[in-house]
Amino acid sequence: MKIASWNVNSLNVRLPHLQRWLQEAAPDVVGLQETKLEDHRFPDAALAELGYRSVFHGQKTYNGVAILARQAPQAVQIGIPGFADTQARAIAATVGELRIVDLYVVNGQDVGSEKYAYKLRWLDAVHDWLADELKTYPNLVVLGDFNIAPDDRDVHDPQLWNADHILTSSAERAALQRLLALGLHDGLRLHTQEGGLFSWWDYRQAAFRRNLGLRIDLTLVSDALRPHVQAAGIDTTPRSWERASDHAPAFVVLD
DNA sequence: ATGGTCGCTGGGCGA
């Protein structure tokens, strides 16, 4: 069971990449972020041709999340329950024996900004939601673009990406640790302690070629699923394709 | 990183 997370940065532009990657990597479940598509424009028919059922929550121009699965997703939750949000950033569904939560965490722009405050509020709401989800669904996978690099192994330059910088600030990392403390585990870190494994590289400065990246796309598994993790990683191949997303897919394999 | 790139949109914002 291969479960992946991929910020496609416009599914309209990246549909050919997604189709190619689904065929080459053959994931069973995929959480997408930044689809940037209203629901009536979601390419569910094209994805069904490849054997994937889709559920999605999108909007015009920004944000947008979706879950693709070979089995039909059930009990779909759109948005964070009880948290009024004009931005389409969260979707959850049951796929077979697994509960999948797909998140496009707020970027936050700059530490101290209004968007940063929204990011921290948003992560608080996610915390309470996941606490409830775990009670109902012990077999929980939480994946997405977290817009937080968990620790210094996950950034190319810890001097730059420091405790006062967006995506690596103390409060953001503390918010992530608070999610993990619910009984969730960073899938990649169950598999390797290696640093320099990145999932996002800025379009500018030839960052991908120079491997100036961050690991901000995560696949978290619950306590109950932890013993079933067989592998985890980041597939950097699609990041090298022509007109690539700035993110690569992160994945975890469960037995 | 005071931004050199993208995507969406139609000038400037968000990342």
UniProtKB/TrEMBL annotation:
Molecular function GO labels: DNA binding; double-stranded DNA 3'-5' DNA exonuclease activity; endonuclease activity; metal ion binding
Site (Transition state stabilizer): N147
Active site positions, chain numbering: Y104, D145 (proton donor/acceptor), H247 (proton acceptor)
UniProt xrefs under CDD domains: ExoIII-like_AP-endo (cd09086)
Positions marked as site (Important for catalytic activity): D217
Cofactor binding note of this UniProt entry: Probably binds two magnesium or manganese ions per subunit.
Native species: Thermomonas hydrothermalis
Keyword annotations: Hydrolase, Magnesium, Manganese, Metal-binding
Top-rank taxon: Bacteria
Site (Interaction with DNA substrate): H247
UniProt: Mg(2+) binding residues: N7, E34, D145, N147, D246, H247
Domain Endonuclease/exonuclease/phosphatase: from-to ranges: 4-247
Protein name: Exodeoxyribonuclease-3
InterPro entries: AP_endonuc_1, AP_endonuclease_F1_BS, AP_endonuclease_F1_CS, Endo/exonu/phosph_ase_sf, Endo/exonuclease/phosphatase, ExoIII-like
Family note: Belongs to the DNA repair enzymes AP/ExoA family.
GO BP annotations, alphabetical order: DNA repair
